Amino acid sequence: MQRVCFLLKVRADRLDAYRARHAAVWPEMLGALEATGWHNYSLFLREDGLLVGYLETEDFAAARAGMEATDVNARWQAQMAPFFESPAGTRPDEVMRPLTEVFHLP
């Protein structure tokens, strides 16, 4: 099982709205994440907008590709894009870059 951690940046003026969206993630989106291999998925948000994501999956590339192929992900990413500090025209899931794990205590 791969452990994957990534960082994104939420716009400081959108933190409350971002939290509200994640308090009510669409059931269809939750089902798609589970079906495509995203397990133990968590998001942590710092007050300055730094977002830390963590998940476990058998194959991160396959899990990302699986989500990319779903309609619900396209709709979710389009709605979430304005919340992030990322290059214009990119979806949040396109700029996720896994961090290198340097230590793990099992």
UniProtKB/TrEMBL annotation:
InterPro entries linked to this entry: Dimeric_a/b-barrel, Rham/fucose_mutarotase
EC number: 5.1.3.32
Gene3D superfamilies found in the cross-reference section: 3.30.70.100
Pfam families reported for this sequence: rhaM (PF05336)
Keyword line: Isomerase
UniProt GO MF annotations: L-rhamnose mutarotase activity
GO biological process entries: rhamnose catabolic process
Protein name, per record: L-rhamnose mutarotase
Organism: Streptomyces broussonetiae
